[in-house]
Amino acid sequence: MPGTYTYPGIYVEEVPSGVRTIIGVSTAETAFIDFFSRGPVDQAVRITSFGDFERQFGGLDTRSEASYGIQQYFLNGGQVAWVVRVPVGDPEPADLALEGGSPLQATLAVAASSPGTWGDRLEVAVIEGGSAGQFDLFVREVLRSDGRVQVLAAETHRNLTMRRGDRSYAVDVVNGASALVQLTDVGIGDLPVAAPANASGGADDEDFQALSGGTDGSAFDDAGALSDGSGMREALLGDEAAKTGMFALDRIEPFIFNLLCLPAAASLDGTNAAAVFSAAETYCAGRRAFLIVDIPPTSVTTAPAMITWMGDNDGLRHQNAAVYFPRLTIPDTLNDGRLRNVGASGTLAGVYARTDANRGVWKAPAGTDAALRNARLAITLSDPENGSLNPLGINVLRNFPIFGNVSWGARTLQGADQQASEWKYIPVRRTALFIEESLFQGLKWVVFEPNDEPLWAQIRLNVGAFMHSLFRQAAFQGKTPSEAYFVKCDKETTTQADIDRGVVNILVGFAPLKPAEFVVIKIQQIAGQLET
Hints:
The chain is an alpha/beta fold. 25% of the residues lie in helices and 20% in strands. The chain has an 8-stranded mixed sheet, with helices on both faces. Strands 8-7-6-10 form a 4-stranded antiparallel sheet, with helices on one face. A 3-stranded antiparallel sheet has the order 4-5-9. A hairpin with a 4-residue loop joins strand 4 and strand 5 (105-112).
């Protein structure tokens, strides 16, 4: 509003420019959902390195396909991952009851911070605190071997009390700070039995008591193989209302994920695997994300078998998904470096991330620079075999002299030639998802603004600036902005009937870059010319 002018002179007023910068969202934050040996259950945890994964979820586990996928993701250029641990077969946390009072009775229940047999490595010691009625709680995770104790992690919580409401109340303090245990007050509130403190104010080995009873669930047999496929399917699918399984990713807002990998689903039988991948495609479509589908480990080992598998799973053809053949083998540090057969999704997600960072999401994650690090091909394919798979929308992984193992396909699962889909290519689809999500996030300010030409002009200005920034990065076809993109928001896109309904329509178009999938070199012989 204009100010009140009362004296002759100069008045300075700031006039809003109408510029609201739209920032491009991430393109390769990858979600992995699977069984892991430890970590929070049905919660999406953001990690930025494999070291993070080892600390929070226990690292590699022979029963967890995704643990190897996450390792491959970071080795191949991934930067951010969202990890969801699902409870398969009702795992239980290790626990211990500390006693107090007279006569002795359970006073404080100590439980591992998450289910799993890992909790059986936890030990706690309770010693006298600095003042009467206070105690110190020592927690450690140990590995015992050949009579020796290796401390893997340790925590100390000092001067705790059992007085509810006290700022040093043990349950509140420990549960808010500990990464190893959680406490429950189950008794009369007396101080648990305390051992004398040693000279350094710490705890000696004999002061520690071990937790026990942790289980990884009943879904695995004695050899570590998955014995309950339906249990894994239900764990991966989860429940939308309870935000479990894949729906745990709904809780990461305002963050987003862009890629989804479900390596464990490939090991399920055909019906269960199809159910999981189909639900995952629907979930990704609703969140502008992209799914990388893994193929079965044993039944799909040749090009003809892959063609048969694709025919049996035509229901999985989706514009927000891609599949790769063959599977990969990687060195397994848990098995003396012997090769382990793994799905390609984690490796390819890393390649996607590396390509996005180096070239942009509009560059196909394929070609001689799309090397598969730390991975070999389960089988080597020839050009004719490649030629039988590519027209069906199956991306092939190849080995070439000098270049090594590379991704040699860039089609979505709607990329079969017969479908003639406008979303045939992965970079085209992912560029569209990137633009959609960026505009979705960057135009929230428009809601409830007066729906008329001043608003439309602001929308054209801001969306146009965002699209032009992509044009300058060579994200589109065309030599000029008018050839590369357009933004339309005016009385033609938004009629009076739309205005009456509270609707503003914004039309954004772009000319996508499509990969040079087939390079044709024509050679012609010419006759020598006679000198004259």
